[in-house]
Design brief:
This protein is mostly helical. Helix content is 63%, strand content 3%. The model has no long low-confidence stretch (mean pLDDT 96). The structure holds magnesium ion (MG).
Length: 504
């Protein structure tokens, strides 16, 4: 049995190595690659993808899992295996089953369609013309529904899609959670909208890019992100990618005349990066060294970006330093004024620019539309109209341009139906983890206001990062906080924080 396990781990390690090599090509493409290289780069990536798929679906894996006693009824395999090995075979079985359930033909059709759809989407967004993208989305949805059928589900086809990004999460549970968030936050948003708003014009002054970068690097270092095991570069859309167990890179983007973009992008990606750098030594080299779900991944970026990075305690430490970096720009600004500015709440069209109070409404909107598309209740050509009216209901504003509505996100063109809910789940998890941190670190406020951020990192590492995929998101949440995911924590966090800024 030990032989089967070692062989299985050998294959798993090769899969990881291939994934990291592909990540390097992808990272390069988004950062430094000359534009003319794009054609061969996509050939390189698609060849590696084929090799990876072949490796991940070889019947040898199925045979080895069988030898280890793994089956649908017994996904953790033989009882004599140790805890980590049982987690290893469970995850391996999950990946293998998923990979083999999808016919190769469907996988390559999806790859072809999404690559075309992405470039059409970019054009359509540019021209703000949904009708260009519509036929491609329609074709993609046919394939996505077929994919859901191949993967299988018990209750709802959307479950199969959701499970890719948030293993084990069910549509009806997301519905229940989102209904509660909507019910509790809609009145808060309305109350805020009816008040005179915060003046955030100080954020639109001039902030020289090199100084923004230097300041961001100081914060990253304080958080515990080390340039010895990573890099920070610039890309059109910020992201984090693992190129190796000691090479997790971040990107951000800067705007000279809007402060929030650079720093909060940096802190957000820093949170993602620290998760990927924090897997325990025992699992670092294998397939357990990955996020257990995208919701948990996002919780790690959001806890740093919003809960810590937009808190008063945090800026009571960093604002004097920020003034030192931008002495002229911020000479006449008080900490209080700055804190209120970075926490301004205002319903907006674009999800990625949304504040933490309204952000989840953007997700609820997409979730409801995705469900209606998958069940066939909504036709593709009705989508822009449905978007507008739902936006009016959830956010109180109605986008007239498709580029500010239905065409704003890349996800659907990439076939990523089922992805959006993980962003909101991440916000909810982050608030629940935050509550546990405050309970367990009794000098939490002092820690943050003295810039001793690595004490928080240490907690996150021990409780969350080191485990990788050893526990499912659900189990991890219970283990860390003593309860399953409860949106009440997020609602309380929002009400507590924003009652200090608005009358709510
Ligand atoms: Mg993120």
């Amino acid at each position: 049995m030990q032989n089967s396990l070692s062989r299985l781990k050998e294959i798993g390690k090769e899969i990881k190595l291939l994934e990291h090599a592909m990540a390097l090509l992808g990272w390069d493409q988004e950062t430094y690659m000359p534009p003319k290289a794009v054609e061969e780069r996509s050939e390189q990536l698609s060849l590696l993808q084929t090799i990876l798929h072949r490796k991940a679906t070889t019947t040898e894996i199925g045979d080895l899992l069988g030898e280890l006693g793994v089956s649908e009824d017994n996904p953790e395999g033989d009882a004599s295996l140790g805890t980590l090995d049982r987690a290893y075979v469970r995850v391996c079985f999950r990946d293998y089953t998923k990979n083999t359930k999808l016919p190769t033909e469907l996988v390559s059709k999806l790859a072809r369609q999404t690559s075309i759809a992405q470039s059409v989407w970019a054009e359509a967004r540019e021209k703000s013309d949904f009708s260009r993208f519509a036929p491609h989305l329609e074709e993609l949805l046919v394939l996505i529904k077929e994919k859901a059928e191949c993967l299988g589900y018990e209750d709802h086809p959307y479950d199969a899609l959701l499970d890719e990004f948030e293993p084990g999460m069910l549509t009806r549970r997301v519905k229940e959670i989102f209904d509660r968030v909507r019910e509790e936050l809609a009145p808060v948003i309305e109350q805020i909208a009816s008040q005179p708003n915060v003046d955030d014009s100080i954020l639109y002054r001039t902030y020289p890019l090199t100084l923004q970068r230097q300041f961001g690097e100081v914060v990253l270092e304080d958080m515990g992100y080390s340039m010895e095991r990573g890099r920070l570069d610039v890309s059109a859309h910020p992201f984090t990618t693992s190129l190796g167990r000691d090479d997790v890179r971040l990107t951000t983007r800067y705007s000279e005349d809007y402060f929030n973009t650079g720093i909060f992008g940096t802190i957000h990606e820093g949170g993602h990066g620290l998760y990927e750098l924090g897997f325990a030594e025992e699992i670092k080299e294998n397939i357990l060294a990955d996020a257990t779900s995208l919701g948990i991944h996002e919780s790690q970026s959001r806890i740093w970006e919003n809960i810590i990075g937009r808190s008063y305690s945090f800026w009571s430490h960093y604002f004097p330093l920020l003034q030192h970096y931008f002495p002229e720009t911020l000479a006449d600004v008080s900490l209080d004024q700055f804190y209120r500015a970075i926490n301004k709440v205002e319903p907006s069209f674009i999800r990625v620019e949304a504040d933490e109070v309204t952000y989840n409404m953007h997700i609820i909107l997409r979730f409801e539309l995705e469900l209606a598309l998958i069940t066939g209740e909504l036709a593709v050509d009705e989508l822009p109209g449905a978007w507008r009216s739902l936006s009016e209901q959830l956010l109180g504003i109605r986008p007239e341009k498709d580029s500010e509505g239905v065409l704003q996100d890349i996800h659907w063109s990439m076939g990523g139906v089922g992805y959006f809910p993980t962003y909101a789940l991440g916000n909810l998890y982050s608030a629940q983890f935050y509550s546990a941190i405050r309970e367990q670190l009794d000098d939490y406020e002092e820690i943050i206001s003295s810039g001793d951020l690595q004490k928080v990192l240490f907690w996150l590492r021990e409780k969350i990062h080191r485990h990788g995929r050893v526990y499912t998101a659900e189990k991890l949440c219970e283990q860390v906080t003593g309860e399953p995911l409860d949106p009440g924590y997020f609602v309380r966090y929002i009400k507590d924080k924003y009652s200090g800024i608005y009358d709510v």
